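Morning, I've got a small favour to ask if you have a moment. I owe you a coffee for this, so here goes:
>
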Amino acid sequence: MDYKKLAELLYPNVKLTPKDIFEKYPPRNLKNGEVVSRFAPSPTGFMHIGNFFQMFISYSLCKVTNGVFFLRMEDTDAKREVEGARAFIYDILNRFGIKVDEYPTLEGKDVGAYGPYVQSKRKEIYQVFAKDLVARGKAFPCFCKKTEGKEEILEERKTKFLENDETEYDPCRDLSYEEVKAHIDNGEAFAIRLRTKNTGKERIVFHDLIKGDIEAKANAKDVILLKSDGIPPYPFAHAIDDTLMGTNVVVRGEEYISSTPVHLEIFDALGFKPIAYCHNPAVCKIGENGNRRKISKRYDPEAKMLYYFEEGYPANAVLEYLLNIVNSGFEKWRAQNPDADWQDFRFGINDITAVAPIFDLAKLNDISKNIIAKMNAEEVYENWLNWAKEFKPDLAKYLEDNRNYAIKICGIDRGGLKPRKDIYKWSMIEDYFSYMLARPTETEEIDNAQYYKEFLAEYSKNFKLPAEKDEWFAGVKATAEKLGYATDNKAYKANPEVYKGNTAKACEYIRLALTGKKNSPDIYELMTILGEKETKERLSK
């Protein structure tokens, strides 16, 4: 077979050579240790936490080494593309403050010197390398027609491939030039397949930056490099794009380990140096049966990255949680550097967990509440308002119309040596402080309705909001003592039956009248925010 003649028959209009392509993509000028990595999503729907987790590892490795982090849109599967998915990907990255160095804009322009950053625009590049492989006898055209349905595919495999499951030699690899030309003259479309050099008996060892050396069976299948529409599947596009774009670390899920032998043989056929792989473990959850399972977009709402914004988690809380499961050393670092920016945390590839992390919502909540606890009232208000504008516009209008009052609500129990740590997402605040936004329509169970009404009637009779907390508490004690409550706790414990209750019970009645709850923040602080008029009306009613 004259392979060069065959290549010209298949691609008569492709005049560029691999050398021409490489001249357009010169090596990056990198300093020692700088990582070049990428986020390469497919625009097929919402962003899954597994994809985001891989992206975040790539992003972090690039940032801690002053490297380059770029975005490449892998849109070769047009049938699965979802309208608006590209804009959604950018939206999620922006929400989390992820800064990409090189990327394709939504308007179709490229920011960076190594584009196009959209795979569907790189079709000519793939054809150049496919033609070169055919010319060197390392690939061949395949004219086998597609079959519809699983049964037909399985039947075809019985005759098309050898019985060895590890070996798939496509029958078109043995076509003569004349046979290929007859197919071409007949107007038949063709795919390009790799002519594997292996027999199914060979084994290889490749190095993973997280898992170390991995031994596996070498690829022995004539895998597709270009589909009949000229678009490549992931393995061929990955080898070409990441080589040309100067990627030196590929972060991807461990499900790709099994297909790595295919990728390595493609690299070898192309004459490319393999790129370092970092196969990170999948994010998991503990299922109802107690077993570890991969987090699922079908069953787990937290698998969807927009979920965290819908619920109102601060973006940096989610990022800090992910850092915590990427590298357990982050928790210790955070304890030693409570006020530092999370981006000051430094870690290398060897520090990335090799064990599948268990997603723990309780841990995320704990991280988030500590972050919110450090915010002042104005910061909490602005975050709450911004969340409400997107997800609860009626609440947003109320917050804007009552700005000063809302800021006071956000400041309850905030500041001081022990700030409140019971709020971990913005969606909680409305329910948590519902009694500050509207009068409670019901109360928790009252153990003695007669005493409750009696005390409040007396206490509200001549109520005026005191200027100091001590003065307020003295007034509560005076009313309580007048009605037969113990103001000395020792006396109450000694003879509880002779009293209607103690001062704590009197405070509980006031709290119930104001909030409808037996537990709430400091009563006097709530009164000062509600104001004298509103407080008195709630007490009297």
Remarks:
- The mean pLDDT is 93.
- The longest helix spans residues 523-540.
- The longest strand covers residues 203-208.
